[in-house]
Every structure is written in C-alpha cells, then in structure tokens.
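Tip: read the tokens left to right.
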C-alpha cells in the first residue's frame, strides 16, 4: 500500500520527543530513526533499527519513548515496509513490558476484529488501532513497562492480521510478537493463533505458533503439544517446540518425551531460525525447567535424557549435552553422581584436541570438542575421582585438552596432578590457575609439593617485570607458608620489581633462619622505595618482626597527604592503623580529620573509608563514642545503589564494638527487611544487644534468606552462631532440609565455583545438625 511519508513525518513532529526518555536520556533522536526506518535507504534503515534496539529496547529494557514509538512502528509494518524486522521490534517492546494489574480496572482487551485493520496503519497515531476501549495507553502513574505492553496490545489487529501474510518470516514474527502481549492480549490473540495453526504448513511458523499458544493459553495447548511430539507427520522443528511447550506447561515428562528428544539430537539446529530466543538452547532449557520442578520423577527423567545425550554418537549432540550437564550439576546435588559415568564416556568418545573455552559463546564448548567434558569432570567434586585415570592420561598429552584435563585433575586428585603440573608449568595456564586457587581464590590451592615448588622457583627466576602470573604464584606460595621457604632467594631477587605484591609473601614463607635477611630487605624497601611502594613492605615488616615504627611513620605521611590516592587508599591506611591498635595513638587526630561529615552526601567508597576509620579509632582508643555515630550514619543511609557490601562491612564493624554499640540497635534492626543483610545484622545485634534480639524470629529470617539463595553461607554461619540447640523444632527441620534437599542452596557465583561452594555449605549444615544430635544423646545419657 502507499505510505504517506509527509503525514508520517508530521505526526512524528507533533510529539514532544525531547521530553520523553530512553536508555541514553532524551528521546529527541527517535523521530530521525523512525523516519530512516520507513525510508528507502536500506543501509540507513538498518542503522536506524540498530539505534532503536539500543535506545528504546536497551538489553530488553523499555522506556517512555518505547511506548510512544509503538504506533509509528505499527504504521511502518502495516505499510509492508521491513515488516518482519519491525514486528520483531514491536514484540521485543512487548516482551520488556508488563501486564496492567487486575486492580487497574481496565476493560477487556480488544477482540481480533476490533479497531482498524493493518490496512489502516497509515493513520495518525491517535487513530492507529487503540484496541483498548476509551483508555489512554500512558495514563498517569503507570510504569513504562505497563505502558509498553498496553501500546502493543493496542496493535493486536495488526499483529493478528499479519498471521496471514504471504511471507513466512512475517507470519513467524507476528506469531512471536503476539505471544508477548500477555494476559492483556490473550483474549484476542489465542483464537486467531489457533485458527492460523490449523492451516499453517511452514514448520518454523507452526513451531512459533505452538510456543506462543503455550505461553498465552497453557491449559488449552496441552493436547496439541502432546500430539505434536510424535514422529508421525510432525516436522522436527515442530516436535522440539512441542517438547519445550510440554515442559513449560508443566505436563508430566514421560519416557516418550525423552525418547523424542534423543531422536531429535542435536537440538540447537532445530531452533536456530526461531525468534523464540528464550528457548534457543533446547536441551539446556529442558534441563533447567524439569529440575526446577524439584520432583524425583522429573530429576530422573532429566538424568536419563542427559545420560543418553552424553553417550550420543553425534559430537554436536554431546557438546549440547555437556553444557546442559554442567547446568544440571549447578542446580542439583544428585546430578554429579548420576552423570559422572556419562561425562566420562563423553570425554572418552572424543579423542581430544584443541578447543574453545567451555564458557564461550552461548556457554558451550566448541562443537565436537572433548574439552567441555574434561572441564565438567573437574567440577563435580569427589565424584570426579572416578575419572582420575582418564584425566591423568589426557593430562600427559599436549595442547588445550591436556591443560583442561590437568585442570580437572587438580580438583579431583591434587596429589597426582602436582608432578604433572610441575613438569610443564609454562604450558598449563588453566591447570596453573586452578592450582593457585581458581577464580578470585574460590577454590583450595594445590597442597605443597616439592617438585611443584621447584617449578615455581624456576618460573619466578625467569619472570619478566609486570608478569600477570605473579598474583597466582603469590597465592600459591602464601598457602604453603614456611614450606615455600626455599623460594625466598627468588622472592628477594624479584622484590624490587614487585614491591606491592611480594612483601606479604616473604613474611609468610620465610623460616626462622631466614627472618633476618628478609626483615632487612623489607626494612630497606620501606625506607628507600617510592612512597606508594613502601606501604606493603612496612606492613609485612610489622607482621614479621613486630616493629611498627616504619609503618606508623608511613601511615602518618599518607594521612597528612590525604591518603595519597583517594577513598580506597584512605580505607587501606585506616585498616593498617587499626591493626596497630594503641600503638597508632599519634594517628588519631589525622584519622578524625579524614572522616566525612555525618550528614554529607557520600558515595560507597567514602562510606567504606569512614567505616574503616571508625574501626581504627575504636581499636586505637578503646572508646566507641566516635565510631557509633559514624556507623549509624552509614547504616541509616539506604538511598544509594549497590550498598550491600558497604552495609555488611558496617554491620561487622558494629559487632566489633560489643555492648558499646547498643545505640545502633534501631539501624541494625532496619536491615532485617533485606534478606542479604539479615546475617550480618543478626550477628551484630547478638554482639551489641543480645537482649534486643528475638532469636526465634531471627532464625526464621536467616532460614528465609538461605532458602531464597540470598547469602546462604552467611545465613547458615549466623544460625550456627545462634546455636542449633536454640532453634525450634520447625527451624531445625528447615535447616536439616537445607542440607538434604536436592536443589542446591548456593545458586549464584562464578562458573565452576557454585558446586564446590554448595558442597561446603552442605557439609557445614550436616556437621552442625549432627553435632547437635550427638550432644543431645550425650546429655540424655
């Protein structure tokens, strides 16, 4: 149809776009993008589309300008201009939106035949198909998300009309977009989608229609999904959509579902051209969906499906299965034991070779690559020991696969891994990182081994200044303590090049007979090095010899210079002063002067510095009078963003005050409304005013936090500190359940660390519960 560009431009210009907001502020650029999108220049239109995805649909978030743009996007699509692409953008805006609340009093959504048809799409926006009866789409007080969903629901006649378009891509895009109109659009959309599904022949469109119907009308779609999983007459693209819909709807997962999924492997290729990116990794999606049902039959169904997929003859299928199996192990405590055999078989089936990082791309190893299975064997705790022989054999080879195998062996059999790592330390970066504690020190370092120490000494001797390997080497040597004493000569030689990293290592590893030499080197560095390089040497010298004079002098210099590096340096200085205790009394006036005003508008680093100063003043003077108002000011400031760790530090500092911190009770109790803050708040209240702590309520809040995955390790430690004996029967049962349930309690963390963290938490819970039971038996005896 003809598109009246002049009218379109006039209608755009009639709106105050400069006053609307999007991801980057004012939406004054949106009219230009919409003009380009509707124009004849394909390159300009493509660029405009990219700009709109970045501004009005930024990483799935929507804004005021997003809703205002929807009617104009609808007019472009209705004119058959880049229709599929524009419908996808409209659907994305609906996806980022929300349904109006039932309390809003909205009338029923438009029926499919209400409002103008797609052919009317060139009318001004006020007339372009507002399918909601006599109601503005941006009424006062509603969120941008609701306004966006409302705006797209108003365009349902366009979306549903496009279901009959001659272009497959347009029909598919329309089906997908209609699915995101939610409850507000379901009444109009579901009948039209069913009508189209009855006559549609294209496999991808049929799959999109089925997924959309499952989303909008799960109960009414259950039969169609069940019928479509069979091989008779159903194309693979529709069968996998039916399997995914069956899981999402909540239908019982039967051996027939497993059989159908295994027959379709590999699955990713069947959804590669779908617009449903929520389920673009089918085996992974099925794994997550079924495990989160948290029933024994569903768990066993997942494990059987993954076992079969991991043993599949197609390497692409095994690659998909490894990624899903890793996710299963992150979610389920029973998964490692159930899947270790199949993971070992997957690693054996592939002969090795270099491959991509299993965390790259969509999260999977490269197609057909053994490395993902090898890495997985190192993430399943003690169960990986069953594959130790395979890992050792592969680790003795060459290339990335050997490095991954050794990385896993470091975890499952460290004694066996140490000499293999020592033999080829330079060429085993992944294994070396795991041996040194893994990501941010989240794993236990490799135990001391003489051959590995010799390799580390060689590495230290050959290391170039600025080497990125030094932090890892330092972490490993620190964990070995005096066993690493033979490395002192290499550490002393490297000290001038690494004055900030090596002093604490030297203090930790040197043996009694080496202390004189090490102390002299640290004293010289603390005396002659540039100011920024002297700090760690002075601190290590105090740790090693007890001589606090160099450190005290340096701290005084730093405070006189405003800590010489901002709030982070000030916090570091105050922390070091606190460690000196009363010996740091000369620093008290400078520490007081460095405090921010209590009513100042402080950012988080400034608050962290104030907390450290408050702790220092308390430890130096023995008086809490100055610390209490500082901590009260921090804990009472809930207006800022990302305050979690600042509040944790403040609560821990409050606990250190003991009964003198009693005035902080009100602000500490206020933290109990935030599950992430409950553990430090409870411990602080227990320390400053135990009589003000409701133990039973606190235990319930801690269990709520742990069960929700909010600071679970901290919550359990706080429960243990309260005393398992003090818990009610109900609370002890809940704590026991946390240790025995299948779904992991630890849910968040760096990839590769969740399983180990949860295993440690589970052991801690079991020890506490069993210890209490034994104490009870003894007392009864």
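Filled-in amino acids:
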């Amino acid at each position: 149809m003809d598109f009246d560009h002049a009218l379109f431009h006039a209608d755009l210009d009639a709106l105050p776009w400069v006053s609307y907001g999007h991801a980057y502020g004012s939406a004054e650029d949106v009219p230009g993008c919409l003009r380009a999108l509707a124009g004849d220049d394909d390159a300009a239109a493509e660029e405009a589309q990219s700009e709109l995805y970045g501004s009005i649909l930024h990483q799935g978030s929507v804004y005021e300008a997003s809703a205002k743009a929807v009617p104009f996007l609808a007019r472009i699509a209705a004119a058959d201009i880049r229709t599929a692409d524009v419908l996808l953008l409209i659907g994305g805006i609906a996806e980022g939106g929300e349904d109006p609340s039932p309390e809003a009093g909205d009338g029923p959504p438009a029926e499919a035949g209400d409002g103008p048809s797609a052919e009317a799409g060139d009318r001004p926006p006020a007339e372009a198909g507002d399918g909601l009866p006599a109601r503005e789409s941006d009424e006062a007080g509603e969120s941008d998300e609701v306004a966006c969903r409302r705006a797209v629901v108003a365009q349902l006649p366009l979306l549903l009309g496009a279901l009959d378009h001659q272009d497959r891509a347009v029909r598919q895009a329309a089906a997908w977009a209609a699915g995101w109109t939610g409850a507000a659009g379901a009444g109009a959309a579901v009948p039209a989608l069913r009508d189209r599904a009855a006559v549609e022949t294209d496999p991808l469109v049929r799959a999109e229609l089925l997924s959309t119907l499952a989303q909008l009308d799960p109960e009414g779609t259950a039969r169609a999904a069940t019928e479509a999983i069979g091989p008779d007459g159903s194309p693979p693209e529709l069968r996998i959509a039916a399997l995914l819909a069956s899981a999402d709807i909540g239908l019982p997962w039967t051996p027939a579902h497993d059989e159908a999924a295994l027959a379709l492997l590999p699955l990713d290729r069947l959804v590669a051209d779908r617009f449903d990116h929520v389920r673009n990794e089918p085996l992974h999606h099925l794994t997550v969906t079924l495990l989160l049902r948290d029933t024994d039959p569903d768990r066993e169904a997942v494990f059987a499906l993954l076992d079969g997929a991991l043993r599949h003859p197609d390497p692409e299928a095994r690659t998909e299965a490894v990624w899903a199996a890793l996710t299963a192990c992150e979610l389920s405590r029973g998964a490692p034991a159930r899947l270790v055999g199949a993971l070992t078989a997957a690693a054996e089936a592939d002969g090795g070779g270099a491959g991509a990082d299993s965390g790259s791309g969509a999260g999977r190893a490269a197609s057909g690559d053994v490395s993902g299975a090898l890495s997985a064997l190192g993430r399943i705790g003690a169960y990986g020991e069953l594959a130790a022989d395979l890992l050792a054999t592969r680790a003795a080879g060459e290339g990335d696969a050997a490095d991954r195998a050794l990385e896993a062996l470091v975890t499952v059999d460290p004694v066996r891994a140490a000499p293999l790592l020592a033999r080829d330390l330079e060429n085993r970066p992944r294994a070396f990182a795991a041996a040194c504690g893994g990501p941010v020190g989240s794993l236990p370092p490799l135990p001391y081994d003489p051959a590995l120490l010799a390799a580390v000494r060689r590495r230290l001797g050959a290391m170039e200044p600025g080497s990125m390997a030094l932090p890892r080497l330092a972490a490993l040597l620190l964990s070995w303590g005096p066993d690493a004493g033979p490395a002192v000569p290499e550490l002393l030689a490297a000290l001038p090049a690494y004055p900030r990293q090596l002093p604490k290592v030297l203090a930790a590893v040197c043996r009694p007979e080496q202390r004189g030499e090490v102390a002299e080197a640290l004293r010289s560095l603390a005396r002659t090095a540039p100011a920024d390089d002297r700090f760690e040497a002075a601190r290590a010298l105090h740790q090693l010899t007890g001589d606090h004079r160099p450190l005290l002098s340096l701290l005084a210099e730093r405070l006189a210079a405003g800590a010489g590096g901002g709030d982070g340096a000030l916090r570091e200085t105050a922390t070091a002063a606190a460690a000196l205790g009363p010996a740091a009394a000369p620093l008290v006036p400078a520490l007081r002067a460095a405090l921010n005003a209590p009513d100042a508008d402080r950012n988080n680093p400034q608050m962290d510095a104030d907390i450290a100063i408050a702790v220092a003043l308390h430890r130096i003077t023995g008086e809490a009078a100055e610390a209490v108002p500082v901590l009260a000011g921090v804990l009472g400031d809930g207006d800022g963003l990302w305050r979690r760790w600042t509040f944790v530090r403040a609560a821990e500092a409050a606990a250190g005050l003991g009964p003198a911190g009693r005035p902080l009770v009100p602000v500490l109790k206020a933290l109990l409304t935030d599950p992430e803050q409950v553990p430090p708040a409870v411990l602080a209240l227990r320390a400053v005013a135990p009589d003000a702590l409701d133990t039973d309520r606190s235990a319930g809040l801690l269990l709520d936090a742990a069960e929700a995955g909010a600071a679970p390790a901290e919550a359990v430690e706080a429960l243990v500190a309260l005393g398992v004996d003090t818990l009610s029967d109900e609370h002890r049962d809940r704590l026991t359940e946390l240790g025995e349930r299948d779904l992991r309690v630890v849910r968040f963390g760096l990839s590769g660390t969740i399983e180990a963290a949860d295993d440690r938490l589970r052991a801690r819970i079991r020890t506490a519960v069993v210890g209490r039971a034994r104490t009870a038996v003894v007392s009864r005896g």
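The beta strands are 21-22, 25-26. Confidence is low (pLDDT under 50) at residues 106-138, 352-369, 775-781.
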